[in-house]
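EI: anyone free to look at a 413-residue chain?
SC: sure, send it
EI:
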Amino acid sequence: MLFSKSNEPTDYQNRRLDALAEPPEVGHELFVGLSALRDTLSSRHHSRDFAFAHARYLRSRVLALGLIFALLSPLWIVVDSLVLPSELLRYTLAGRVGLLLGLVGVLALAYFSHERIRRIRFSAGMLLALPAGFYLFVLVMLPVEQVRHLVGYGFIPFLLVAALSVFPFTLLESIAAGLAMLGLLAYSQVIDGSWLTGRGLESVWLLSSLLVVSLAANHFQLSLLLRLYRQATHDPLTGLFNRGALEVHLEKVQAWQRDTEGQDSLGSVPCSLLMIDLDHFKRINDSYGHSVGDSVLCQFAELLVSQTRRHDCVARYGGEEFVIILVGSGQARALEVAERIRYAVEKTEFSGHADEPIPVTTSIGVTRLEQDEPAQEALKRADEALYRAKREGRNQVVAALAPTAPEDARTPQ
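SC: here you go
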């Protein structure tokens, strides 16, 4: 039976997945050359998994800088009491109290938002917006002739632009924040009469220069974070998820299944695992050399990626073993996908360095991923089904027995 190379879900599956919360998404982060600029410009091309890693890193920065701001804000009240006329203190004191309460709220939000990406990003934005809002409040509330008595307040836009370099923001986020600070500086200059004067233009130039430095810091910091993330979670040969990242992603998929159970009248969304192994791969290494074997693994990885969808996950489990998580596919659908992959591998012309054809076949074990079972149990069940396929002749697909049923003893290849 000829299977198409497309792995698009049925219309029913599309409608069902679209109606639920977005599942964990797998993606590849590029970090070299122009692609580095693309990935640091916005978060559009970041995978869901990197978004979680990015949020955790951002959260630590919010907690550290927020604590510093919260400690320094009351100390500035002493400075205000020494240099400002007593009739102005009621304005600055009200603003300081509001700023301090807001900073405490930001710290609490970030502290209790361990895996809430949007809340963490919101808390980071508010950490910069609160001091800017405080400065704007003072400028609006104080009589124009009294603005000149403020000491140190004009430094706030510069401080906040410098603080941008502490966070791994995208370039678009930092540019938006920087433009807001330039607008705040321009408004303060209109108030104090320095707008378009030599002193005012010098301040605008200095703030713009500081913004450029912060943008460069954002770019290099986010690029480094992407690089470290990829090195820690991706197989260096094939570029697929490694075993550790696969196990973490499995837990996220199961958590997503539990979270979406109440959103679908049919229960949780089914997910399945494919454990895939290249048949007689040692013969390829022995006959053609290990470099050709590595090339075959890369070609095989590309074929697996071409047979899966955006929300599916393809990982190198170890050696010539690979695992695919099929999101939204029950075991019957997973068996169809596995058979299509097996057929595609059998018919694909793998080649060596001299373009010599290399025959390749694969064996596949299939099992359903239960939302409440340990991920290792599902992997073990799929692995045992894979070894049954090998014992029964290789180049075939075998479904795992039910989780509660006794499984055949595993024998070595």
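EI: Residues 243 and 317 are 5 Å apart (CA to CA).
SC: 👍
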